[in-house]
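Note to self: keep these together.
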Amino acid sequence: MDPRFNMFDNEIATKFAKRFANAGLVIQQSPLPKSTQELVSLRASQINGCGWCIDMHTKEAAAAGESAVRLNLVAAWRESTVFTDAERAALALAEEGTRLADAHQGVSDETWDQVRKHYDDDQIGALVALVALINAANRLAVIVHQRGGSYEPGMFASFT
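Structure:
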């Protein structure tokens, strides 16, 4: 599967990508823990089959000190013991917020209650925005067949 379109070689697409990345800065600079941000992004990307984003968020998390064990268990977080209750709440929100079409209620009250239990309003605002943003990023990359494997941690640090 070859890439269909390079989002960074087109003026319109590049303008959009820069604004999109700037929106992500709000989340990155929020009080939501960086490890939670990467785990949530990784889980949504796994569900959506986005190789580019899986590559990016796995490498960024590892570069930030995340363990290989935790990264390898994100896809099976319910069946593992390495995530905190707060992280489990965030991962549940990521899954339910990503699989909106699979459940008539969207995010369940039970999941929302767990998120409320573990995060303050600023962190929740960042978490909800993150789930929306990573799902949009997954769709952009999957549509144009942007494949994983070439990402280097920090490569977009100067992009915004």
